[in-house]
Amino acid sequence: MGITTIGVGVIVIDPETGCARSKFRTDRGIYHESDSAGATQLALWNFQAEIDRLITPIEPLNLAGQHTLSSYLEFVSGHWQNIIQVHSMQSMDASNLNTAVDLLFSALIGEFSTEHSHHDVRHVRRNVRGTYRRFPRLERATIFDTNVRVARRELDLTLAVVDEGNVIELNQAFNFQSTDPRGTRSAIDAWTLKIDKLIQEGGELSAHGPITLDPRGSSIVAVTTEPNSAAQQENYLEFQEFCRDLDIMVLNEEDVPQHAARLDERLAS
After folding, report:
1. Which residue of 2, 67, 169, 266 could cross-link 161, Cys pair, CB 3.0 to 4.6 Å?
2. Does 134 share its domain with 233?
């Protein structure tokens, strides 16, 4: 007897504010437990991309037949969605949106072991790359695993987004759960110093050529994990100070899908 359904995530909407959050499994067991791993992965990526696109700070009115997040979920829950099935919406009480998401995910989906990955910046990079690849338009504009030459030094990046020769975003991942806080501090010092130099003098993007960052149109983004220990927290707070001084956007790993959806919309405009 085979397993017919596997829980992969939850989506929560605050009815008072219209704000929403989602949380999905990221472990590879999702695909190992399926008879059609490739098709399951693609279907889940497409579904998550649609959810990310529809999640906005305040849910808009349903104008001109366009779906809001609520109406889309109501629609798909009443239709056979091939591999991905969505259950009907239900109500619950919680003190805030984040608590509701965590409680539902723990109760309905369960916790899956990703301990090693959470302590590895490579996992964060993979998640960022995978999220950007869910959006075909954004994927076409993205140069993955690149670097910028700055004053004879190389600035490593998870990715760069370039549209019609204009640099839209430079993105790098950081792991503040590292067991080597001194190494983390050295890394963030070196990276922020190079960013400062890049902002002042420009640089050359690998596989693209000379670039100049326009503060009005270019964003520098740092994707981070949440710190656990006191030493990790100290590095994290110091890094946030550096980023504020340099106008660098700091994103938690779980905020990347919504950020990518907004970036994809910007490329479409």
Report:
1. 169
2. yes
